Amino acid sequence: YGRASNGTWQGGMIGQLVREEIDLAFGGIWLQADAYKFVNLSIPWYHVSINFLVPRPKPITNIWALMRPLNPYVWLTIIFIFFLQSLNIWLKALINPSVPSSN
């Protein structure tokens, strides 16, 4: 069910994936050459008409994409703890006489 028309997919589960109404689809989706332009179809390892569909991933062009998974406050906390731990190690090395100095 559904078809390619004017560079987009009309109808069916593939259409819902393209319009981002659903995240993935299971079912008896008939393999059509046009469908491969819009979604990644799983490779059939046994000849049945059931496929696992996910929308094609959009390319990430933002240089800060690796920062997205965590909240900015979490990143600030991580940086603060990093500097606090660095200060802790430096003070322990300063106090401990067995640590060689750079002089």
TrEMBL record:
Bilayer-crossing regions: 73-91
Cellular component terms per the entry's GO annotation: plasma membrane
Keyword Glycoprotein: yes
InterPro entries, per database record: Glu/Gly-bd, Insect_Ionotropic_Sensory_Rcpt
Keyword Transcription: no
Predominant place of localization: membrane
Residue stretches making up the Ionotropic glutamate receptor L-glutamate and glycine-binding domain: 1-57
Natural source organism: Bracon brevicornis
Protein name per the record: Ionotropic glutamate receptor L-glutamate and glycine-binding domain-containing protein
GO molecular function, one term: ligand-gated monoatomic ion channel activity
Keywords recorded for this protein, A-Z: Cell membrane, Glycoprotein, Ion channel, Ion transport, Ligand-gated ion channel, Membrane, Receptor, Transmembrane, Transmembrane helix, Transport
Compartments reported by the entry: Cell membrane
Superkingdom of source: Eukaryota
Membrane topology: Multi-pass membrane protein
